[in-house]
Amino acid sequence: MSQGPSILGIETSCDETAAAVVRGRRVLSNVVASQVPVHARYGGVVPELASRNHLLAVLPAVERAFERAGLAPDALDAIAVTRGPGLIGSLLVGYQTAAALARVWGLPLVPIDHVEAHICAVHLDPPPGDAPAGAPTDPPYVALVASGGHTALYLVRDFGRQDVLGHTLDDAAGEAFDKIAKMLGLPYPGGVAIERSARAGRADAWRFPRALLGPSSLDFSFSGLKTAVRYALRDAFGAEPPGGTDLADVCAAAQEAIVDVLVEKAARAVRATGLGRVVLAGGVAANARLRERMVERGEQEGFDVVLTPLAYCTDNAAMVAGLAARLVETRGLDAWRDAPLRADVYANLACGTPRTVRARTP
Length: 362
Ligand code: KG4
Ligand code: ZN
Fold this sequence. Notes:
The protein has 10 helices and 12 strands. It is α/β, with parallel strands linked by helices. Helix 2 packs parallel to helix 3, helix 5 packs across helix 6 and helix 8 (about 245-275) runs parallel beside helix 9 (about 290-300). The chain binds 5'-O-[(R)-(carboxyoxy)(hydroxy)phosphoryl]adenosine and zinc ion (ZN).
């Protein structure tokens, strides 16, 4: 294990079937079998379709991950798998697969929290040409995780150990992007489509609300923005979504409203904790405008902004294996020696709320 433990990661919490092999901080392979075409026609993820497609895609993804890594299963030290939060049926497919492989190959199984994995993605060696600003030094730091299912700020004390500083009271930031995109007739996933269209738009063409929830709140709320966009569209364009520059302007203005809130709250969290560093993670952290505005704010206020490499922002299994590698390095393999075939997975519908919706593998 001189270069760190070799770990197979499996991630099936939502609509991407992902498998990856890492050695320490090095990503040897990172396979993401996207289900976007399956769900795009419904404008969002259909849970039952997601689990069924995970069943079909998970073993081929694992095989491809070994092939690309140039490694055989006997070179592994452990298998890591996402245990939650996510869609229960989807999680069960990944968990059962990982537990079965661990049992067959006699390997320890490391269950991983999806949000903790998003945060830890920043510690993976970036792919060539994708090295972002900021040095990924070890915790403590503040982390902003903004994705389709979660938006929250954390005080990260150590790998896989953090306190919630604030979380969304309703929609996640990515969910806001996705829902606004749907209203505009743009394809799923909405964040990507809005970012693309916003490049040609004017962010000040519309003034959408920013829910700051009081001067010191670190919580988020995006449902008011969604409603404001809905009424603005109805009043200005009737039943037909806008096109051309009108569409670009709405996209730019909505994106700016979301980015303003994320940047402001992250800056508040840095001030409140006295930690001079914020890590930006999750699917929405791929947004170029958010990355640019966050770095600007850090320069103005004198804190460091550490961006996750673009390839590791949206759901992937390298981040799952990467967190497991950190945990194995610090706690040793024995903690996970008796891989349980039965295990809880959890849905945790809104980040920071109790992990109430659970299921047990049969
Ligand atoms: O982390 P992720 O892949 O899955 C969850 O854990 O939810 O995040 C997916 C979310 C989607 O809502 C998608 O619209 C958003 O991330 N997203 C973006 C961008 N790329 C993905 N949002 C804004 N700008 C982007 N470039
Ligand atoms: Zn995610």
